[in-house]
Task: structure prediction
Amino acid sequence: MFTLFGIGFTAPWLLLGLVALPILWILLRAIPPAPIRRRFPGVALLLGLTDDEQQSDRTPWWLLLIRTLAVAAVILGFAGPVLNPQEDRTGSGSLLVLMDGTWADARDWARRVDRAEAALAEAARDGRTAALVSLTDRPQGDLPFQAAESWAARLPSVDPKPWAASEDEIAAWAEGLEGGFETFWLSDGLEHPWRADLLAALEERGEVTVFESPRPVYGLRPARFEDGEIRLSALRARTGDAAQAVVTAHGLDPNGVERELARADVAFEADASEAELALSLPPELRNRITRFQVEGVRSAGAVSLTDDALRRREVALISGLENREELQLLSPTHYLEQALEPTADLIDGSLEDILLANPDVIVMADIARVTETEADEIEGWVEDGGLLVRFAGPRLASSDVSRDAEDPLMPVRLRAGGRTVGGAMSWGEPKTLRPFSEASPFYGLPVPEEVRVTAQVMAQPDPQLAERVIASLEDGTPLVTRKRMGEGQVVLFHVTANADWSSLPLSGLFVRMLERLAISSRPMQPSAEDLAGTVWVPDAVLSAFGQVDEAGQLPGVPGEALAEATPGPETPPGLYAGQDRRIALNVISAETMLSPTAWPDRIPVEGLEVLRETALKGWFLTAALVLLAADILASLWLAGRLTGPRAGAAAAVALALVAGVPQPGAAQDDPAIEELALEATTEVVLAHVLTGDAEVDRVAEAGLRGLSQTLFARTSIEPADPIGVDLETDELAFFPFLYWPISPDQPIPSQEAYARLNEYLRTGGMILFDTRDADVAGFGASSPEGRKLQQLARPLDIPPLEPIPEDHVLTRTFYLLQDFPGRHASRDVWVEAAPPDAARAEGMPFRNLNDNVTPVVIGGNDWASAWAVDDSGNRMFPVGRGYAGERQREIAYRFGVNLMMHVFTGNYKSDQVHVPALLDRLGQ
Amino acid sequence: MSDPALLRAGAEGLAGPLPPLLADAQHLAQTVLLGQHGRRRAGAGDEFWQYRSAMPGDEARSIDWRRSGRSDAHFVREKEWQAAQSVLVWVDNAMSMSFSSSKELPSKGDRARLLAMAIAILLIRGGERVGLSGYGLPPRTGEVQLLRLAAALSDAEEAPDYGTPEARGMMPRSRALFVSDFLHDIDGVEAALTKAADRGIKGAVLQVLDPQEEAFPFDGRTIFESMGGSLRHETLKAGELRDRYLQRLAERKAHLQSLCRTTGWQFYCHHTGESATAALLWLYRALEHDH
Result:
């Protein structure tokens, strides 16, 4: 490739064209711009005038320069300039592009893919075959050497995996390598146990080049809960200078939206590969955390999912009467407290207070009866996912709870009295436990021999009993029964919570049983023994990029395997759900150390920052186009076509050439909306619905203006100028009152507008519908407006209506009225119907009416016309005739005032019914 | 008998060009509130002037019996003397008048014809006689004359690049109106005006110009051509000519103004970009009064 000033040219002979530039200069210089022909009658006056100078004969030098540069740019562009031309890499034969494909790769995966693409493109140019292999996703059989282009096309489908390949697999794969090839290894920057062996195997085949990103690798170990604090340790692979990282905790907020719950800085000291962080969070917040993350690092290693280990359950313990005389060891809850204290937050208090705190578990030790309301509340709490654990005891045994019919808070019916085995007064030996069945949540727990049960309450045989038993004695009598209720469950231990009836609370089995029931949390990483016999299904999996995804249909994992699993194809890192518990399998476990790669000196290692070839052809051609556009503008300007007549079109064309890019639409928040909000909320404003009929809208506005003025003059309501409201676009919540004149041809509002109207009506807005036809029609469907009103109001959420009753509060909110005329004086005005049971208060002329504002008032009296005033304050329409007419207008105004008072003060006047009673009570 | 169909086709063809010009002109003329311009003395006319006592020699039929019945003396009802003036209109129909600088503006010729027609309507309603000079249409009064005027004005015929006022056929002591752009040879105008002044004719000169002719918004290398192409001027820098062109235009206007002053005529320069009403008002005032 021909190189000039660091720029290579693919077609250098085209540069010879540059020689022609001086000739072009001379040619262009000689040709003046073409004249414009203009028809102009004034030419008669021009005859005989001569030009002062002849300079315009020649094209100005700067225009020449623009044109010459444009031509030069075209020539250079077609000569194929390339920035940073790459010298061909020496090499022949096949090329293996090897990627580690681990989670550590994910932090700059896009750049790795770019680098691999560059390597493949290079190979393609040299006509070499290539193979692309990700070590976490190795192809079966021989290395798939193919044309490099086909690999470049498949590159986007290669993904890193959130685990690293195991040593055995890599060793086996390295064994199987055959033939000679050059290797281009994109390393993830972490030392893996197999790396040295694989390097040796590859070097046998050919040259090895390594590329490594200088970006730091961060990891986050699982969070531990110690001494009331969450402890986290962050890791980094390459030690060096002191560094700072930010760890964030994420989880669902009370609204169910995932957000950042906490953040803290973690500081790496110089030469330290590990940094500790202690977070002290309130339990409510702590229990919400679902994962920790090193901020700004897209890698599974920088994410640590949390599981039950971090979650401290809130357990409420309730026992029967506190027997202070008894020894502490006989206390019904002593063993429970001992078992739960290290792993759960215990709550005590009255049942009412406890239910308010919404604990995870309520343990009731030997409590027979709760009050009915408490029982209801507990039932609701269980159905919402609570776990109610009950222990039997003498009180339960002697009560008749769940005797005849199953108590909702008991899993089974009980037989009277219970039984005692192996005591002084009974036959038989104390009973041991039977091994747990597979359906039981305790399946897999070893049953200690020494556990003996001497007394228990007995379950009544029932059809459902078998499926509710989760633990039983060796003779088959149920020991623990469970019933699912809604999302929660009720569990009954048929023995006491202390050692009175059995030795179960003394054994380690008791603690594990509590753990399996998710009453207590698992303290640390569970052992295989703990998880024996359980099956765990992936609930959420972690991608290599640190993203938490739905697990989909992944097979379950046996608990034993999970306890010792490291992330791999069989056990992808993520959250595994058992029956009631969840275990997180993280990429980085508590013991993982990150260490950087150590390549032998003979291996060339490059960073990812490689100067890439950049073809400059496009840039040069663009520059040429820009210059030519500038030339067009300049020529037009010189020829007087930019300033003269009909310059508009020329300028528009030129601008279109230059600008090219359309202006981005200014789809910002509409300031008009804000303006309306301000206008409507800074002062009280009456509003009318815009019907689209200009005359109706004008009258409505004038009417409300007149009413506003009347209100201003007579009452303490001082409204500003009325506003017309477009139902489709405007927010209605600002307006206490809407006047809606009906015209037969107004459009039906959209569904969204109706939704907002209904919301408006429900939240206390009022609409005055006015069909304006009371002069020709009685209220009803007999007029076009009436039919239109029916159409308009059908989707509205309007309560039952009645003609305004004599004692309606509208008749007395400000003025005492019985008629509600507008321009017409019909008596058909409808409001929300009073409830049928409204009764007349003792000694009052009014009924005790419904205690809210009627959402609609419907009539046809054309009130707006009666109220309407023009800009100079004159009445716009005549009402009636003579004095009677003016009286009618006055009453119309009074109706408006009453209506507004009703809107703004609600049923305040109606409530005055109660004044005598109040006075009576006050002893006046 | 002529064929009714032929007659109708001919009538429609004749009436075709009339309505737009006539309607526009009527419309424009309505904006001017008309006042009869009587002679302020008794004479032949329609309007009541005064009652005077009957004198010997008055014909008996001239006595106004209704007035006389209210008193003992006899009265004669006198009417105001209303003399009809002849106004001759010359509208330049040269090709230079067909220029308009933009689509929104009417051409100078259209505006000139509209103004001439409107003033003719006003004058004829005022009882004057209006005719066209140079078109062979002698001054007459009446609505029919309006139709004739409209027909004559709308008649497009082959015309030279620039026009010269016609002063032939003017009756002494009548009045005249010359409408043109007066951009070409001033000598013809001078000659016509002098000739008219010699006969005691007074009148008005209305110069109609396009806004572009006032502004000269040109630049760069340009070849200017007259509308007919008979005149041609090439310049390399039109912008440099602007000042000198405007100076020449001002000189032309000043020349016309001084010519009018010496001959007792009135001069007004109207631009097609402006409202026609202003020009019409000026015209009406200039032609209505005796000077």
Observations:
- The first strand of chain A starts at residue 2 and ends at 4.
- Residues 162 and 544 of chain A are 4 Å apart (CA to CA).
- The longest helix of chain A spans residues 882-905.
- Chain A touches chain B through 30 residues (CB under 8 Å).
